[in-house]
Amino acid sequence: MFRKILFSAVSIVAMAMGAVQAQDLKEFRVGILGGENEADRLRNYQCFADHIKEVLGVEKVSLFPAADYDGVIQGLLGGTLDFAELGASAYAKVYLENKDAVQPILTTIQTDGSTGYRAVMVARADSGIKTLADMKGKKLGFADPDSTSGYLIPVTSLPKDIGMDVKSYFASTGFGGGHEQLVLEVLKGTFDAGTTWASGVGDFKDGYSSGNLRKMVDKGVLKMDDLVELWQSPLIPNGPLVVRTSIDADTKQKITDFLTKLPQTDPACFSAVQGGDYKGYSPVTPEFYQPIIDARKAKIGS
């Protein structure tokens, strides 16, 4: 009985100390997924950093644009990052390694009200490749091994459309080093086609309403006339905005409230951070990503 009381007392003290440490947060560390060049990512997130510094009353907000998805994933698992927006597969990887490392709080809402997006396969418009059937025996590029739309969903969904596994259908596959770089490699001819992400809402000629293609168009590094779409995936759950689980509840609520209001309080910042047109944010829980977690566990194993 004494041991049980002592254990409970120690647990309460430890929890109290953890809460104090979280409330004394002096630096807020934000991970930014790879996918476009570092300068663009830092510029797009600067308004977020300025706002969240004031909202949380911290001395410093540090932005960490990782070279690839795994850089942010490891930062969250290791506790060296406090916040990030992840793709569904990247979140699944974190969850499968340590389900208590981060807490998903919000996800984006598309302009049509949906909370999902698409993987799209694109090829050069002048390549002579017009359909998925034309890609048999050709080179296919993926964005990143931890990308949902750039890898996980294509390798699990394409076999239903091509009638065999990906390795048997295509001559070879490889990775482009992020979504933007993947599309640039397709344009250069490194791959005959590649998979990236888009809202699937709106017109292909505009790069859709949001996603990697739209961001590239808006930056002036892509003309949609240079691409043709070969394939589009089923709807994929939009990725979550996550916070380190050990941060105290009050701080998490401040972050959630700030982000929920951001589309109204600073629409330009909201658009810069998200890279396109969205309606806003919606609350989300781990259960929303269970299909992606299951798919990753089955196909990749981590």
UniProtKB/TrEMBL annotation:
Domain of life: Bacteria
Family indicated by similarity: Belongs to the phosphate/phosphite/phosphonate binding protein family.
Gene Ontology CC: ATP-binding cassette (ABC) transporter complex
CDD domains per UniProt: PBP2_PhnD_like
UniProt entry tagged with the keyword Zinc-finger: no
SUPFAM superfamilies recorded: Periplasmic binding protein-like II (SSF53850)
A single GO BP: transmembrane transport
Signal peptide interval: 1-22
Taxon lineage: Bacteria, Pseudomonadati, Pseudomonadota, Alphaproteobacteria, Hyphomicrobiales
UniProt cross-references to InterPro entries, sorted A to Z: PhnD, Phosphnate-bd
Coiled-coil ranges per UniProt: none
Presence of keyword Signal: yes
Alphabetically ordered keywords of this record: Signal
Protein name per its UniProtKB record: Phosphonate ABC transporter, periplasmic phosphonate binding protein
